[in-house]
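A student in our group prepared the protein record below, which I am reviewing. I have pasted the whole thing underneath without changing anything:
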Amino acid sequence: MLYQFNELQKLILSPIRIAAQFQSQALRSPFNPLSETPQARTLAAAYELFAETTQYHGKPDFGLHETLIDGKAVPVAEKIVHRLPFGQLKHFERETDRQDPKILMVAPMSGHFATLLRGTVEALLPDHDIYITDWRDASAVPLYEGGFDLDDYIDYLQEFMAVLGPDTHVMAVCQPGVPVLAAIALMSETDDPNLPRSMTLMGSPIDTRRHPTVPCKLATDHSLEWFERTVIHHVPVGYPGALRRVYPGFLQLGGFVSMNLDRHMEAHLRQFEHLVEGDGDNAEKHRSFYAEYNAVMDLSAEYYLQTIETVFQKQLLAKGEMRYRGDHLVDTAAITKTALMTVEGELDDISGVGQTVAAHDICVNLPKSRREHYEQKGVGHYGVFNGSKFNKYIAPRIGKFIRKHDTVN
């Protein structure tokens, strides 16, 4: 019923939002003699802010059409190189002959689209050949395509790595840290010819027993049955994935917002002030951020519940107890060739400090020369992979690490 209520709410708010947009435009019109009065500007800002905060946001575009290489603008084309039911492999193809290191960027499947990593891609694109996992909204996947769980996620990663070949560097942002480690461990066991040269784990919940955050505590304070009963819903009729059991994206968004409600309220208040003052640049930055932040996707129920249990409740990979397909023990000690870099943010309130660096403790046979860890001061979870400090400090370190391990030795 909660999913249906959310759909009804969007339907009811739609005409009200349109009316608010019309009123805002009318109040700001140069033909309105009162448009420059404080009262009109304030009222127009209020209408516009209401329209923005109630807007439904679909899947955003990356919009990365060019990058700078050696100081020159180079065209970039987005191309799909491999498709699977729950995700596709997207290539940011640069119009250049440079043979830069190849990166498989594994976007989190945690409620937001892969475009959440737009800034990450943009920062690394000048010096790297980038591919990204473009996950699909589960509400758009018909039931006949079957299910998708954590084991399927691992299979997808191995298939994507097979498509890209052995000269690949894998980068996992947040949630994918565990399945990336598991996939590379399984490939290491068989000395898979497509084993990647390096992996970079950023703000990943490898061992959530270390400095548990609010999401970690939520997972351990409730049973798996509680999650299944409370947050799992069926996709309504009218969607391609009708009747599929999912964890709705709007619930995940509500959880993120509630964790930092004061911060979001303050941001909207500043947006209101910018609109009243006519500060278009700052208003547009706010608008762009929330258009991305509020664009959410549903997750398949089996994947969500298996992740809650495996990663957050039982920490199976960190304990050496994670099993793939029911009976195959995932042995991270098998990782001896793929170099490992971990990145954490000092103020991360999603994956606390210590959770990602724990990967080094379970890759016991990886030589010290193939390991690196970096903690960025003054950034939270989002700042680990985006923003000014990522661009200035983190991205260059990742680039240096990747180039160090870009040759077979």
